[in-house]
Amino acid sequence: MIKINLLKARKEKKKIGIRKEIVIFILAMVVVLAFLLVVQWFISGEKEKTLAQIANTKNEINYYKSLTAEFNKAKEQQRILQEKLNVINQLRKEKTGPAKILDELCIDKPDKVYFEYDKKDGSKLRIEGVALDDEKVTNFMTNLRKSKLFRTVDLIVTEQIEVSKIPLKKFILSCEIIFR
Questions:
Q1: For the chain, which residues score pLDDT lower than 50?
Q2: pTM above 0.70, yes or no
Q3: Does domain 109-177 have CATH number 3.20.20.80?
């Protein structure tokens, strides 16, 4: 009888199978490693893009901050200029104010009424004067009330005085000036 040693063939087949498994394992590892390298390369590219976008956004933020600073500076200059214009306009109004007030007082003043003292404090005007009688003072107050330049005309004091043996009425009036 012939004896065939099949154990060596089985061992050979087993060795070839193990070699195949090792080769497949190495190939799988190479494929996985290649996949990981591709993923890493893709992630690095995305990281670079994101960092570039962040830098670009920071530059835009700085640009808009400088624009905001310039805008606030221009707004402040505009506010200062507006204040100056308001002062100029107020001075123009007040420049003609005293002349208008004196003109209106002279127009509304009846004969035999004389002013001794005028004092303006803001929009309030205090008038001290002398008249021949109470009727002249009343006429003067009525004329001031009818005027478009004065309002709330009030008699503060009226008293009898004598100058060179002539009886006169000393009066003090208060009124509010309407500026236009």
A1: none
A2: no
A3: no
